[in-house]
DNA sequence: GCAAGGTC
């Protein structure tokens, strides 16, 4: 059996179809692995790399004392399958193969993916013959040729790729760990470092520094308006920028009529049709259409998977001869493109345009099939249409312009005007993505004299360099050799994800700056594109056998060791530097109380805004817990409080804008403060003026302080403080009731806990005690069934009773004993005789009396009389000595207040549960005794 | 929990 291994599913399928010829190909999909079969041949599609390099076991713990980051430099490297399913199917099939052909992409990474497959094959079948097919397009001709002349795998080329993998892992992981640990960052907040991402970040940071250092210079431009045959002419002074205003003014003053035409130079300008698309130019063009880099690639991937365009990851800008250009044009010449397709077919240039880069792995990006706007969808259509039109344009003739340069003078001053007219639109007929503004001038000849309608003196300023847009950055990365066509947009996403950069165009955050500054100072190598260049040189040398992979790795590890010499000696300094530089990111603005800075602070999952002058200033504002999203400041600043707005951000959720934290702090306390009796609008205004926003800030002050602060009489201040305390208590009880409702009621449609609580509060039922006493009808109105309503009020009563008893001061251990005896409500304590309670619960009589007294106090009732333990025990003995008195009787007697001979004699005969006869007999015996 | 490179 012949096994063919392709880099990806789609390649496997097409190779199978081509090689099968007329034979039928059967496709099998097993999870993530695709297998195509015909005759005695199987073709499997990988998914790029199916294994990855990692450190040998033992290096997982970042904070390990025995394996600090530096030890990663010399840690053993292993390969681990990342696509286990594909690996297992590959190996299963490979066992039975007697020829294996590696047919991965024709580039370095493809050779490495091939070698990885080779090793997986060898692990289960060490005798099978393995060869390699190299093709630069998946077309019948190319594929048949490549499979007719297979060659051995190029292990040196693969080794070059492998060396890159290891260098990247070792540098990236060790530096990432080091710098994250130094800055005390963990979890989702690590500070990453890498050969590609760090220089890319540095470019953005450097550009920002240039912008900050830029000093604008004022300059002046002189132009004038004229006309001929009612057509306007705008002429510029040939001096261009005037640095001195006086000179410019002199030029204006010297510009006297008439305007004389001295010379008219006619010319022609060729306007070259654009070259075939590679990934970078696709991303750049998509940027102009409004797609972010990552979005453009996602859409392109989608178009590719659905057969509308060719493979979107390519560096090639030259159509391979095998590509059937005419066929594609005719396929596209329908629907929306009918007219343009026909035009292209009729006006096709002799040879398509070609760009500077020509590679062997994939053709330039081109349409692969016709799609209508309806089928493709709005989101992707703009990009697809662009790809089609760009393809058309590369086959269309150049456009031609007629240009006109007119030299003129006004008085002593020289002027010039330029015009341009599109005489042959060429490719622009089907491709209108680049600006082609015509500037039409009237017909002018030397010697013409024209009027001067106006002379303008424009004051302008030199501009700082522009920030990078995503597409500009990708272009720049390509120029510098950073990343690949497939990874550049991901690198940018990574920088955004790490919160190193933000916005569009891209700006560095403080974290991004701090990391770049630190790396530039201590580990400069990793921040420079030269590292990539050097690595590529070394990879080339490995490829041509001038160097061995091991030597390159040893050299690289020695370099990294020297970097760590620098880093380790300065670890605490580096950490402090980064933390100091990044603290500003959490600063929100001035504290309204003391003027120092307010900071977002996090403690576990809770977060709040507090004053940096704590503990001298205790001003703070609470924020929703971190589960709602981490609080970050936004650029927007509250005009009233000069505080940055706050936003809660959570992965996978839409950000939640809280606005100005102080505004929302005030708003959320407003209702509570208004609940204080005697607190009118006037007083609230006065409180706010003195920066008292939260109700808790009132209760934490003495009446004297408050009256001094806001200038009200002490007596009034005292009332307010007491009132505030009551409100806090009330709100606490309300919250407690909300929680109780939420815990007891199963939410169902139309009766959310929030809704029920609202209805209850409207009826003035705002704590658990009130709920216990509430009319179940209220709850029925809120949507509960009768049984549910009774259950809620019943358990509310229980909960409230338990709370009252606990608040009265009865310790938990006694409460437990009472509860076991069924004594759960305050009423039970008030209505039952202490003797009965004591006997039923086993709590000693003296303690029971103490507890009952506590409750009586709550209810303004007189406390029960004292009974000592001794007297009680003696009394019990007196009673049990009487014939026929057992424990059951003793309890009944106790509940009636009978606990000794004396009380027995005083009692009437109607004790519940004991017949009057028995009682009078007992009394008689007691008298005798 | 780290990189960069494939692919989805």
Automatic annotation (TrEMBL):
Residues 355-364 have a biased composition (Basic and acidic residues). It comes from the Archaea. One of its GO terms (cellular component) is chromosome. InterPro entries: Topo_IA, Topo_IA_2, Topo_IA_AS, Topo_IA_cen, Topo_IA_cen_sub1, Topo_IA_cen_sub2, Topo_IA_cen_sub3, Topo_IA_core_domain. Keywords: DNA-binding, Isomerase, Magnesium, Metal-binding, Repeat, Topoisomerase, Zinc, Zinc-finger. GO terms for molecular function: DNA binding; DNA topoisomerase type I (single strand cut, ATP-independent) activity; zinc ion binding. One of its GO terms (biological process) is DNA topological change. Residues 192-197 are annotated as: Interaction with DNA. It catalyses: ATP-independent breakage of single-stranded DNA, followed by passage and rejoining. The record marks 49, 164, 168, 313, 498 as: Interaction with DNA. Residues 347-371 are annotated as: Disordered. Residues 154-564 form the Topo IA-type catalytic domain. Residues 1-136 form the Toprim domain. The active site is at 311 (o-(5'-phospho-dna)-tyrosine intermediate). SUPFAM superfamilies: Prokaryotic type I DNA topoisomerase. It holds the Pfam family Topoisom_bac. Its EC number is 5.6.2.1. Its cofactor is Mg(2+). Monomer. Releases the supercoiling and torsional tension of DNA, which is introduced during the DNA replication and transcription, by transiently cleaving and rejoining one strand of the DNA duplex. Introduces a single-strand break via transesterification at a target site in duplex DNA. The scissile phosphodiester is attacked by the catalytic tyrosine of the enzyme, resulting in the formation of a DNA-(5'-phosphotyrosyl)-enzyme intermediate and the expulsion of a 3'-OH DNA strand. The free DNA strand then undergoes passage around the unbroken strand, thus removing DNA supercoils. Belongs to the type IA topoisomerase family. This is DNA topoisomerase 1. It comes from Methanocalculus chunghsingensis. The lineage of its organism: Archaea, Methanobacteriati, Methanobacteriota, Stenosarchaea group, Methanomicrobia.
């Amino acid at each position: 059996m012949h096994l063919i291994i392709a880099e990806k599913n789609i390649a496997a399928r097409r190779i199978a179809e081509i090689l099968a010829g007329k034979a039928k190909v059967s496709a099998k999909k097993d999870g993530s692995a695709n297998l195509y079969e015909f005759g005695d041949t199987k073709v499997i599609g990988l998914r790029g790399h199916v294994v990855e390099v990692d450190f040998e076991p033992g290096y997982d713990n970042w904070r390990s004392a025995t394996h600090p980051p530096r030890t990663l430099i010399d840690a053993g490297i292993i390969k681990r399958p990342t696509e286990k399913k594909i690996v297992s199917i590959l190996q299963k099939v490979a066992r039975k193969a007697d020829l294996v052909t590696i047919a991965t992409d024709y580039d370095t990474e493809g050779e490495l993916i091939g070698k990885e497959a080779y090793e997986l094959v060898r692990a289960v079948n060490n005798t099978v013959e393995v060869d390699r097919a190299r093709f630069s397009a998946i077309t019948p001709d190319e594929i048949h040729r490549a499979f007719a002349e297979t060659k051995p795998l190029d292990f040196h080329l693969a080794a070059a790729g492998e060396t890159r993998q290891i260098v990247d892992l070792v540098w990236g992981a060790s530096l990432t760990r080091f710098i994250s640990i130094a800055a005390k960052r963990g979890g989702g907040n690590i500070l990453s470092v890498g050969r590609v991402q760090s220089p890319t970040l540095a470019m953005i940071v450097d550009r920002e520094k240039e912008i900050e250092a830029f000093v604008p210079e004022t300059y002046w431009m002189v132009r004038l308006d004229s006309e001929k045959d009612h057509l306007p002419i705008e002429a510029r002074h040939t001096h261009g920028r005037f640095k001195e205003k006086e000179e410019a003014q002199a030029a204006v003053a010297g510009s006297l009529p008439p305007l004389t035409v001295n010379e008219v130079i006619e010319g022609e300008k060729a306007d070259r049709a654009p070259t075939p698309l590679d990934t970078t130019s696709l991303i750049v063009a998509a940027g102009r259409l409004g797609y972010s880099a990552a979005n453009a690639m996602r859409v392109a991937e989608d178009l590719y998977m659905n057969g509308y365009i060719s493979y979107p990851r390519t560096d090639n800008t030259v159509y391979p001869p095998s590509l059937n250009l005419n066929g594609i044009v005719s396929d596209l010449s329908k629907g929306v493109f009918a007219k343009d397709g026909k035009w292209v077919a009729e006006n096709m240039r002799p040879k398509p345009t070609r760009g500077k880069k020509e590679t062997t792995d994939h053709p330039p990006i081109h349409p692969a099939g016709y799609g209508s706007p309806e089928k493709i969808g709005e989101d992707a259509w703009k990009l697809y249409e662009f790809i089609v039109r760009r393809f058309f344009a590369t086959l269309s003739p150049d456009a031609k312009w007629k240009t006109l340069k007119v030299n003129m003078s006004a008085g002593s001053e020289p002027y010039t005007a330029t015009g341009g007219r599109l005489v042959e639109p060429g490719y622009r007929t089907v491709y209108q993505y680049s600006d082609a503004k015509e500037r039409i001038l009237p017909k002018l000849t030397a010697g013409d004299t024209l009027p001067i309608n106006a002379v303008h003196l424009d004051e302008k300023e030199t501009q700082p360099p522009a920030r990078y847009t995503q597409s500009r950055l990708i272009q720049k990365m390509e120029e510098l050799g950073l990343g690949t066509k497939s990874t550049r947009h991901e690198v940018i996403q990574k920088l955004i994800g790490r919160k190193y950069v933000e916005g569009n165009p891209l700006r560095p955050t403080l974290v991004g700056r701090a990391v770049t500054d630190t790396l530039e100072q201590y580990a400069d190598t990793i921040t420079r594109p030269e590292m990539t260049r050097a690595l590529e040189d070394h990879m080339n040398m490995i490829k041509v056998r001038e160097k061995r992979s091991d030597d390159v790795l040893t050299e690289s590890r020695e370099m990294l060791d020297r970097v760590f010499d620098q880093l380790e000696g300065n670890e605490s300094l580096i950490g402090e530097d980064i933390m100091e530089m990044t603290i500003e990111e959490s600063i929100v603005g001035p504290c309204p109380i003391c003027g120092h800075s307010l900071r977002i602070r996090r403690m576990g999952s809770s977060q709040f805004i507090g004053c940096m002058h704590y503990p001298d200033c205790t001003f703070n504002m609470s924020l929703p817990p971190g589960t709602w999203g981490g609080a970050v400041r936004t650029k927007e600043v509250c005009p009233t409080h000069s505080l940055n707005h706050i936003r809660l951000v959570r992965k996978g959720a839409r950000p939640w804008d809280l606005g100005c934290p102080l505004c929302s702090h005030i708003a959320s306390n407003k209702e509570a403060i208004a609940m204080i009796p005697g607190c009118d609008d006037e007083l609230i205004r006065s409180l706010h003026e003195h920066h008292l926003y939260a109700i808790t800030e009132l209760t934490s002050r003495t009446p004297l302080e408050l009256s001094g602060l806001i200038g009200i009489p002490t007596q009034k201040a005292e009332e307010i403080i007491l009132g505030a305390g009551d409100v806090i208590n009330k709100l606490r009880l309300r919250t407690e009731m909300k929680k109780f409702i939420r815990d007891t009621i199963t939410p169902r449609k139309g009766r959310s806990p929030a809704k029920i609580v609202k209805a209850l509060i409207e009826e003035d039922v705002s704590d658990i005690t009130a709920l216990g006493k509430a009319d179940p009808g209220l709850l029925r109105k809120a949507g509960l069934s009768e049984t549910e309503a009774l259950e809620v009020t019943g358990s509310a009563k229980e909960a409230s009773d338990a709370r009252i008893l606990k608040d009265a001061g009865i310790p938990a251990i006694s409460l437990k004993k009472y509860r076991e005896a069924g004594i759960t409500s305050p009423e039970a304590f008030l209505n039952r005789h202490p003797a009965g309670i004591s006997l039923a619960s086993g709590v000693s009589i003296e303690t029971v009396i103490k507890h009952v007294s506590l409750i009586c106090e709550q209810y303004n009732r007189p406390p029960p009389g004292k009974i000592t333990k001794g007297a009680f025990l003696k009394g019990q003995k007196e009673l049990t000595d009487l014939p026929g008195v057992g424990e059951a009787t003793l309890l009944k007697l106790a509940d009636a207040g009978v606990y000794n001979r004396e009380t027995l004699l005083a009692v009437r005969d109607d004790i519940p549960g004991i017949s009057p006869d028995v009682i009078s007999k007992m009394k008689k015996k007691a008298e005798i005794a």
